[in-house]
Amino acid sequence: MPRTIYIKEIITILKEPKLCPRCQKDDRLEKNIVFERRSDGQTILCSRCEALTVITNHNLKEVELSATKDYQVMLKEPHLIRKVTY
Q1: Distance from CA of residue 59 to its chain's centroid?
Q2: Residue 19 and residue 72: Cα distance in Å, rounded?
Q3: Model's pTM, two decimal places?
Q4: Tens digit of each residue's pLDDT (9 = 90 or more) over 30-75
Q5: Disulfide check for 51: which of 9, 14, 15, 76 has CB 3.0–4.6 Å away?
């Protein structure tokens, strides 16, 4: 059954976080369901706050997203792309 994935915020980071950088929780993290084609980085989707964390050293201005299986990826407007450093 097709699933629609909504994304409010895209966060780029250098190292894999243990918690979601936005909501600071770890109970709804899903790895590598959504792929970012420009950076080829590993991704972590938080379905609680609809944030996509991309683990890469690239500074993303625009994104090209695709999903596994027959999932659809929808960016909510306005969406935010930001970089987080620890």
Answers
A1: 14
A2: 25
A3: 0.90
A4: 999 999 998 888 999 999 999 999 999 988 888 899 998 889 999 9
A5: 9
